[in-house]
# Entry
Amino acid sequence: MGVVVQMDDKSQPSGIDALSGLVRADMERVNQTILARTGSDVTMIPEVANHLISSGGKRLRPMLTLATAGLTNYAGEGHIKLAASVEFMHTATLLHDDVVDESDMRRGKLAARMVWGNEASVLVGDFLLGQAFKMMVEVGSLACLDVLSSAAAVIAEGEVMQLSAAKDMQTSEDDYLAVIRAKTAALFAAACEVGPILANRPKAEIAACRSYGANLGIAFQLIDDALDYGGSSAKLGKNTGDDFREGKLTLPVVLSYRRGSDEERVFWKRTIELGEIADGELENTLALMKKYRALEDTVERARHYGAMARDALELFPASAWKRALIDVVGFCVSRAH
# Structure
């Protein structure tokens, strides 16, 4: 038995082709910067870093940095290094996350920790963070450095929040949203905020870009949560139901637990809290999520945050940049991969 979640939002474009086209030249420079900055005399560092960096991620976060710089008519060079910094921060968090979560797969291949070990993954993540901050300093904007360094601290807080709430079935929806605001949305928000800061735009425009990024980040993560139970494993880069097998407390689980009977709550406590999962119990999980519309409602929550992201852009006049950023919302909410 499987659960199919309707991901399509017919009213919104679902691709990022327009954004990719607009930032193509700048992204080539960002990619060159990334390759140059992963270089090290310590052979293992570029090996581990490039294992993940070259594994086919969409580079959405640095693209957003370039796009919001374009949206606000920035004409300098600093956005290239800041976009590379954002990608390094993201890559570092993935390396660290896989160690904390004991994940075996990342983007369809073995996680770096499975190849080089936990210690190497953590230390190379630290190296990338160091390189990210070095580039921020080189750009010379104290305000951008403040935004991105604050985001790094918030992301770490989110990781600790998730750790402390791990497998705790008393976690509320608000508690869970607080975790993803810190873990995921903080970097989206910062990535979008630094462009208008570089362009010396008014506070209202900076706040609008930050709001766009923050709400987009929440929507992005909620769709990821739903896709783990309703998506294609080939497109996910991991197996469907991995969150369940790893005992991750995501919104579909929170909603199913809250809405379930006492007997059903015993099931969730045994599988998520205690990690006692028998063969075939993913099927029972999917049945409970279908019974209580947990996946559909998770997607609906994502659409809500996506709408807020779109609304944040209303401050800006019509442009190719604005249209492309609106398209990104449709892509994140409607994607089936």
